Amino acid sequence: MTMTDTPDPLLKDIIGPTPSQMLRKRVFGHQGLLIGASVVGLLLLVAIFAPLLAPHDPYAQSLMTRMQPPVFLGGDWEHPLGTDHLGRDYLSRLIYGARVSLMIGVIAALISGVIGTAMGVAAGYFGGRVDMVVTFLINVRLAMPVVLVALAVVAILGGSLQVVIMVLGFLLWDRFAVVMRASTLQVRNREYVAAARAIGASTPRVILSEIMPNIANNLIVVVTLEMAHAILLEAALSFLGLGVQPPTPSWGLMVSEGKNMMLFEPWMVLIPGAVLFVLVLAINLMGDGLRDVTAPENRS
Q1: What is the mean pLDDT of the chain?
Q2: In terms of C-beta distances under 8 Å and separation of at least 24 residues, what long-range contacts does 209-212 make, across chains too?
Q3: CATH number at 45-294
């Protein structure tokens, strides 16, 4: 048989599936991952193409059409999800609000992830005084309530999208540091790390080539958890009036604006609250699924 001939089916059974085939099988066999990734991907597309999908300008006010109910409560198709107290189209604001939530979740998780991962890996790999210093900083951070600190800082600096992102990014690194430190401690004395040191690999090369790939699955879980955490904290800050400021569309701000009418028009709170719940749930499902798929014990 030449190299160009079709492989014998019996030979394929002996060799077994390739790593890429096994990965695809694990991915498409995990329902939670597929559901979570589909929802997150759909909302990401909605956020990217918001100008094309939104039926109206999310900032345009019309007091003549204020407080119109959604279609399923007797409204018309001109405003499928109704209008708010200023006559702004609720569906358009909901679509543009996806941009705010995803932007804050991704950027805040990225900032905190870089800080916490660097600290955790350094503490776990070097140990000694580095570990003592990092552990002390983690304990200091854990002693500070996130919501109260965020409220204080945002109240001092003023509420805006940029301030909320930076505050959350610099407050949510502790979980990254704790998990990465523990994961690094587990793998730093493994045979492949010792072999890399024995052949003269530099410390950065050992960390990037040997340690990081073997703790990446834990990092994925923390990233998704902190994305969801940042989105919820932004919604809470906006609800309290210290997050994203009007008229910027934000799901937390929409809940805050609708709370005064909650007893008469509950849909004004339920609609943005339900979308926020679905996004956070989807992110967590996706994170758990990625952890299961990329776990070392599931690669064989």
Answers
A1: 85
A2: 211/121, 211/125, 211/184, 211/187, 212/121
A3: 1.10.3720.10
Using the Cα atoms of residue 141, residue 144, residue 146 and residue 151 in order, give the sign of their dihedral. Answer: negative
- The dihedral formed by the CA atoms of 105, 145, 173 and 197, expressed in degrees to the nearest 10: -150
- Give pTM, 2 decimals: 0.84
Q: What is the pLDDT of residues 212-262, one digit of tens each?
A: 888 888 888 899 889 999 999 888 888 888 888 888 888 888 888 888 888
pLDDT of residue 1: 44
In the chain, what are the domain boundaries? 45-294
Rounded average pLDDT over 31-51: 91
Residues with Cβ within 8 Å of 247's Cβ and at least 6 positions away in sequence, in order, are: 59, 88
Q: Give the pLDDT score at 135.
A: 93
